[in-house]
Amino acid sequence: xxxxxxxxxxxxxxxxxxxxxxxxxxxxxxxxxxxxxxxxxxxxxxxxxxxxxxxxxxxxxxxxxxxxxxxxxxxxxxxxxxxxxxxxxxxxxxxxxxxxxxxxxxxxxxxxxxxxxxxxxxxxxxxxxxxxxxxxxxxxxxxxxxxxxxxxxxxxxxxxxxxxxxxxxxxxxxxxxxxxxxxxxxxxxxxxxxxxxxxxxxxxxxxxxxxxxxxxxxxxxxxxxxxxxxxxxxxxxxxxxxxxxxxxxxxxxxxxxxxxxxxxxxxxxxxxxxxxxxxxxxxxx
Length: 285
Description:
12-stranded mixed β-sheet; globular
């Protein structure tokens, strides 16, 4: 399945260049009272409402995707776990560019580990990126985003894919500077997820996906997930050895070489094979 969240928090099933409103299927989700769960209920109960989604799609009229506003397909991620410098060539460019490393030694991911981004930074492609610190360099970073399906606590890499619900395109937008990564990357709107959530059964080999990012029509980043330093199963094992991953948590797997600055007025076109493509516009905050 390809599920999107669109317009006024509608749930959509994507087929080709059309979307079918299946919001009625959400009635099958459990009701919650305070305190609310620390996970995304849709992802946690997706198997339970799959039949309801199919039934609702059968009754719905198709809507052109081009005419809807796409929000983040994951509405309630408890946490976003991100992998820094997880492509060798990006590690090399980060060490070579003073505007990236700011007189700090850029260490290998095996040494520095992962970092967290604030859930409040998550937006969808139609919401765009609002540049908050216009006086500082703000960079684009395209990444494959992995969505966790079920509770994962100290999961061995051999069973990691049992805990994957699916995938989407992710942007890890970054303000360059001397501060810690989590601060510079957690600004409102600096985690873009979209255009939709593709369930794991539709992605036969997540270790062989092509990524491409164009800025104003110019290709800036191009790579394949086979080039990840730490592959997806090892990343899940690594992350879950430190904290329990919950349904709807998002793992950003790292960005390839070619990162560069963006500015208000720019248009970012991202694509990942077997997942889709999305356009995100940049504006002033």
